[in-house]
Design brief:
Radius of gyration: 26 Å
Number of helices: 15
Number of strands: 12
Distance between the termini: 71 Å
Helix content: 40-55%
Strand content: 5-15%
């Protein structure tokens, strides 16, 4: 396998490690999902033969668990001849993980987002490092879609309908401590070096996550659900009108139809997910994503220091004038841009005053 490594230790615990090649983060590409299917079939055989008593899914990257699906494949995946089968295979492998007779534990550090979080939710138990770097969540709405690997139903099963839908509709990244409170993470450890041993204990003790409480699940039942749906639609429409951002509204429609049955939510994902990926909204949001990632790559890293000799300031107001004066005092070449010279003149006065003040200070010293 290219993306995964499977090892079985002396205690018969299988360790499945994802390490996407030539990438700083792990992603679930089509190849990675296909290889995951192969790995899970192998683990199933090991469990059946008594050679393995459980499975831990972990990351080999310092950056985190899995950042999500491979967004670079979304353009091709939007093809209606490709996407339905790809979704079917992804759902099948998540279901197979969930149906393994031996305990399956997700060991999470750093980012665990999108499809990566959906994979973690398919596991029987989730252990996470409780630090500022650990974040879980569903950012799919920011790409014009919603979770499509079974995350809709499984998040509702674990966190209840209100908190799960809020997480999916907002796309927010959730801290480890908040995820533990919500029930989408089961155990926290203080440091990454203790993650391995806590995951091992979870397998040996055959731990399983508890679903949301009855009080949490009540909001998806009977006459209560239409009221929750109505409020969700109103809030979504304020920030994301259906005409321009159909994904949140399609997810709410799915919840309205199947919110009281997490399995039915999962089964209904594909029919609503596929049309969203091909919308102009999704295409444009993917373009924004790639542009943002390109800018990040051009940013400074580590101990790199910026080297520049000239600064161009757009806008000669109070702030622009002060920025221009500050830069000029430090020996940089400065150009100032505004609609006309009348607007630029006050900034030049500010600069001259600053220079005179500096000169007087030097002379007094």
């Amino acid at each position: 396998m290219v993306n995964w490594r499977l090892d079985v230790d002396v205690e018969k615990i299988a360790w499945l490690t994802i390490d996407t090649p030539n990438s700083p983060v792990n992603t679930l590409s089509r190849l990675a999902i296909s290889e995951l299917e192969t790995a899970i079939l192998r683990v199933d055989d090991l469990v059946a033969s008594g050679e393995a008593i459980g499975l831990v899914i972990q990351s080999g990257k310092e950056s985190g668990f899995i950042a999500g699906a491979d967004v670079s494949e979304f353009g091709q995946m939007a093809d209606p001849s490709i996407l339905p089968e790809a979704l079917r295979r992804a759902h099948a492998v998540m279901d197979r993980i969930e149906s393994l007779k031996a305990p399956v534990v997700a060991a999470i550090h750093g980012f665990c987002l999108g499809g990566g979080f959906e994979l973690a939710l398919a596991c029987h138990y989730r252990v996470a490092v409780n630090d500022e770097k650990t974040r879980v969540g569903f950012p799919e709405v920011n790409l014009g879609i919603f979770p499509g690997f079974g995350g809709t139903g499984r998040s509702i099963r674990q966190a209840g309908p209100v908190e799960a839908m809020q997480a999916m509709l907002t796309g927010r990244m959730i801290k480890a401590s908040s995820a533990r409170r919500m029930g989408i993470v089961d155990k926290l450890v203080p440091r990454r070096d203790t993650l391995h041993w806590e995951a091992r204990k979870a397998v040996l003790q055959k731990r399983r996550s508890s679903p949301a409480s009855l009080a949490q699940r009540l909001f998806a039942w009977g006459p209560i659900r239409p009221r929750i749906v109505s409020r969700m639609r109103a809030e979504a429409s304020k920030k994301a009108p259906r005409t321009h951002y159909p994904a949140p509204h399609s997810l709410i429609d799915l919840f309205e139809a199947h919110g009281d049955n997490w399995r039915a939510m999962i089964d209904g994902e594909a029919s609503r997910f596929a049309p969203l990926l091909a919308t102009d909204t999704a295409r444009n949001l993917r373009r924004v994503f790639f542009l943002s990632e390109g800018l990040k790559k051009q940013g400074l890293r580590g101990n790199e220091k910026p080297v520049f000799r000239r600064v161009h300031v757009v806008g000669a107001g109070v702030m622009g004038g002060d920025i221009a004066a500050w830069c000029a005092l430090r020996g940089l070449g400065v150009t100032l841009q505004d609609l006309d010279m009348e607007r630029i003149a006050p900034a030049l006065v500010t600069r001259e005053g600053a220079l005179q003040e500096t000169t007087s200070t030097i002379r007094s010293l």
